[in-house]
Amino acid sequence: MDELPPPQFLCVTLYSQDPEPLRAYYHDVLGLPIDYEVPGHIAAMGPICAHDSSEGPAGTVRMYFLVENVPRYAEAGKERGAEGVLRTDGNGQPAWESQDPFGNSVVLLTRPSQ
């Protein structure tokens, strides 16, 4: 993706049957402030999110990045041998999901308009 600017890291989401131990570790132990929380579902602490398994399998990690042109990054990834799925995100915008060599999910989201 030499001609494309690097994606901007957004966050990493850790999925668990019970997100409370993750919330406790990142908030109570490390001291990350909670930016957003729905008890039993999700706790967002800066770039770390603890989420229940309603949107991802327990024990998985999903990293999110922002880019200007998701389809172009999807095309470049394919050209470089990365498999992935171009889809629509929850806001109706293009998103591309792939896996890194360790099986972690990597999602490129469309950067919101300023």
Write structural notes for this entry.
The chain has an eight-stranded mixed β-sheet. With 114 residues, it is an alpha+beta fold. It has a single domain, classed as Roll (2,3-Dihydroxybiphenyl 1,2-Dioxygenase, domain 1), CATH 3.10.180. The protein starts with 7 loop residues before the first strand and ends with a strand. It contains two helices and eight strands, in the order E-H-E-E-E-E-H-E-E-E.
Helix content class = 10-25%
Which series of helices and strands comes N to C? EHEEEEHEEE
User: Roughly what fraction of the amino acids lie in strands?
Assistant: 35-45%
- Classified by CATH, the class is Alpha Beta
Please state the structural category: alpha+beta
| Oligomer class | single chain
CATH architecture verdict: Roll
Biggest sheet character: 8 strands, mixed
Counted beta strands: 8
Shape: elongated
Task: Produce a short descriptive summary.
Helices cover about 20% and strands about 40% of the residues. The longest helix is centred in the N-terminal third of the chain and has 10 residues. The protein is elongated, with a radius of gyration of 15 Å.
List the helices and strands and how they pair.
Blueprint: E1 8-16, H1 20-29, E2 36-38, E3 42-45, E4 48-52, E5 61-67, H2 70-79, E6 84-88, E7 94-99, E8 105-110
Keywords:
114 residues, alpha+beta, 2,3-Dihydroxybiphenyl 1,2-Dioxygenase, domain 1, 2 helices
